[in-house]
Amino acid sequence: MARYLLVRLLQSLVTLVLASMVVFAGVRALPGDPARALAGEDADPAAVAAIRARLGLDDPLPVQYLKFVGNLLHGDLGTSVRTGQPVIDLIKATLPVTLWLSLFAVLIAVVVGIGAGTAAAVWRGRWPEWVANLAALVGLSVPSFWLGILAILYLAVGLHWFPASGYVPLTDDPLRGIYYLVMPAAVLGTALAAVVMRQTRASMIATLTTDYVRTARAKGLPRSKVLTGFALRNSMIVVVTIVGLQLGGLISGAVVTERIFGLPGFGKLTLDSVFTRDYPVIEAVVLVVTVAYIVINLVVDLVYSLINPRIRVGGRTS
Amino acid sequence: MSQAVTDTAAVDLGRERGRVLRQLARNPLGLVGGGLLLVVVLVAIFAPLLAPYSPTTVHFDAPFQRPFTVGYALGTDDLGRDVLSRLIYGTRASLLVGLLSVLLAVVVGTPLGLVAGYWRGCDAVVSRLTDLTLAFPFLIIAVGLAAITGASLTNAAIALGIAQVPTMIRVVRAETLRHKELEFVLAARSLDASGPRILAQHILPNAASAIIVQATVVMPVAVIGEALLSFLGLGIQPPTPSLGIMLADAQQYIFRAPTAAVFPGVTIAVICLAFNLFGDALRDALDPNAQR
């Protein structure tokens, strides 16, 4: 177990270093001169040169990279070329919005997905399975941002159930904060719910037909106990893996969801920085996403090995 | 288990194809998906013949026509462009991006997956590569490409394709691992067949069905991805019609013409539904364990 942990940690570290190099190289490959962009179109060359020197853009690339990593380790992500604010402040202001949004989306997806998946497995071949299967198929086929537009059109503008856009920090007013987040989170969680439902259903059906479940039932264990004790526990393993694998999609989905619902989150920061060529912010945004993604995957793997002591991936054969 | 796999692997390819087709024909949902898919592909191919107008022709005298008006079957947008024509060409763009990204995922993912599954030394390198790629969500790749060379259809397809490469590598790698210890491969090796030859002649044909199934999984993801990127301004650029751009436009004048947001969304959903239904049926038909 300790060896497994160590290997996984080292692998993540290597990925992290490689990713930081890719990001660094990618940002240097961008066309356009940030110093010129900052100085303005008609600035004289001396002013541009001064800005270049201040930003360290004249140093050789390896030196720039090492400086970049060194600053990173000190929590210094640079200063936004566009707003002049420290990048770390911009991230601190926007990241919570996206984290809350994603958290609620995952929560909704897991609750709905496991619920529907269990219903489909228990009432196999009857209407709940058909409804759940159909819903999952539609959930996978409908783009979430279209769902968002429809939700605004019908639930917000038509029925006035939810606000069409806006954000209230949960730390200021938890109830109002949740009220503003429910619709975006449900929209973002739809596709994930569909995947979780399908996996839960498949894994439950597999567990319910095993010999040990039949034995337990024969010994008089009630159906509900079998479901919660064996089937649900086994399907949790699958759900944890799936949620981990789908996080990349969730991050991409969050960007577009924020755009539709006007949330001042990390996605908005990402798009703004790209459209204004704000190098330090692009760099930081991509790095934060990458680091978060690598760390989350590591955590998912560890949780996975905890719930499944065998740590044997794909052990079940039919 | 291993006996069953050997049998499957040794099955004559021609007979296997007949079985898969019969299995497909017996799946009603698969048939619906296949039918939808045929319609979608035909619409994309014959777009110039089917569209009543050019998708970019502006009719300033007829903006915001309601659906089902004479001359404009699905109405017009803010510039008086025919919505039906734009949907038809948008479908074409969606499928093109989907096809390009699937192609990229297959062309890059298959050899890497074969190599990683066959030689242990390569596995470590390829694994780090997949980990690295997986660390970047497709939107972040698209953001990077758009920033470097500008947003375009090609860049959207490349970003979506790159994001699908790791999964393709894993699928092919798993198939390679499964087949490389089987008798027919061991036999080929004992006859002194070279590694590349074994991979190309013995393992690749047996991994083909898994690759095809994975490709049908990638298609709808890419179609939705294209719409998403174009919606954000990171994909296809106006005035070229794209379902994502149509949705972005529709959100601008959502109060004036609420129906404008409906048609592009339904079109995307139908395309994806077709691929999902057909892909599911194909997976069931190709999976020997699913035979009843």
From TrEMBL, chain A:
The chain crosses the membrane at residues 99-123, 130-157, 177-197, 237-261, 281-307. It is a multi-pass membrane protein. The keyword Transmembrane applies. It comes from the Bacteria. Residues 95-300 form the ABC transmembrane type-1 domain. InterPro entries: BPD_transp_1_N, MetI-like, MetI-like_sf. The keyword Membrane applies. Its main location: membrane. Pfam families: BPD_transp_1 (PF00528), BPD_transp_1_N (PF19300). It is found in: Cell membrane. GO terms for molecular function: dipeptide transmembrane transporter activity. PROSITE patterns: ABC_TM1 (PS50928). Keywords: Cell membrane, Membrane, Transmembrane, Transmembrane helix, Transport. One of its GO terms (cellular component) is plasma membrane. Belongs to the binding-protein-dependent transport system permease family. This is ABC transporter permease. It comes from Nocardioides mangrovicus.
TrEMBL record, chain B:
Gene3D superfamilies: MetI-like. The keyword Cell membrane applies. The keyword Transport applies. This is ABC transporter permease. Keywords: Cell membrane, Membrane, Transmembrane, Transmembrane helix, Transport. InterPro entries: BP-dependent_transpt_permease, MetI-like, MetI-like_sf, OppC_N. It is a multi-pass membrane protein.
